Amino acid sequence: MKMYRLMHHQRFVFQNQKVLFLTYTCIRSHKQEKKSLETIKMSNIKSYWFDKYINYIKSYDRVLEKKFPKTMHVYRIFSVGTNDLYQDVKKFLLILKKQNIDKQNNLTHDELKLSYTMPKDLTQIFPVLLISAIPFTTYIIFPLAYYFPRYLLTSHYWTLQQRFDFMLLDQKKKLKHNRPLFRCMQAELNNIKTQTLKLKWSGIIASLGSGTHPNVKDIIACSELFADKPYSLNSLKRKHKKELLSIHNISTWTVFKRQKLKERAILIKQMDLAIQKEGGFTTMSNDAIRWALSFRGLNPATMSLESMRNWLEQWFMISNTVNENTLSLLLHSPILLAYNHPTNWILLYT
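Structure tokens predicted for Letm1 RBD domain-containing protein:
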């Protein structure tokens, strides 16, 4: 009997093996599908909580902004400022490398500007970075730097308002030396030997003394006076050099005064050529034009874009006539073109 049942079972399996295989496949497929659905469900749950976590992290700065607004403001200032400073340092190193390769110094205006500002910025920020590297000093130096940004931080950390205010303070400091420098120029009038030049120059001095500015063509006609006595760099008296250094924001304690003045004149000349080579002042941004005017001795505050461009055009007319022998003329141009300018007088006497 048992043998009969076994044979019957084997016959049933043999006859229905295809059906049994399909049934097994369906059951297995169902189990796999169920397992896959569970996996997808778990994956969706993980993804949901991960997305929630990421969104929380992203919005956490807003949470901190609401709870600690002043702290977050300081953090952003130092974070953004440090990044900007780092980028400028990298650019500055590339400029130095470029200058070593290209001896003709074919730099753009922005590169020339950075080569002028970066050494001063690094000198100013270095003590702060050095002290902050000492353990536990960051709690002291950063608050101090935040409250005295003009002296302890560079422009990378300043707000737009601070940049404007500090520019005016620096400009006012330079303008205080305009009158003493004009007196030095006036005192040399009688030392001019050529009568024709003396007559033309006396007209220019009289124009400045009466509160107006001389014609650019008249200034160019007297450029010989800056190639030799009395206004060449080699002929300037001690007080004259001191006042000239001051209006160009160069330390009067420097040892090589004449060399520093010559380097500044060459830098201004290179900047003028670079601006014109790159399309002139029409391609410059408003901030770039304001910086250019401030660097050349004119307060750009309250000036319209058109008036700034007109003044810069007059400057270029003089600069284009300056050569290696008459570099001193470029250094005296802030007096010749901006001494009586209304924006300078307003800043100086208000």
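Confidence is low (pLDDT under 50) at residues 2-10, 12-22.
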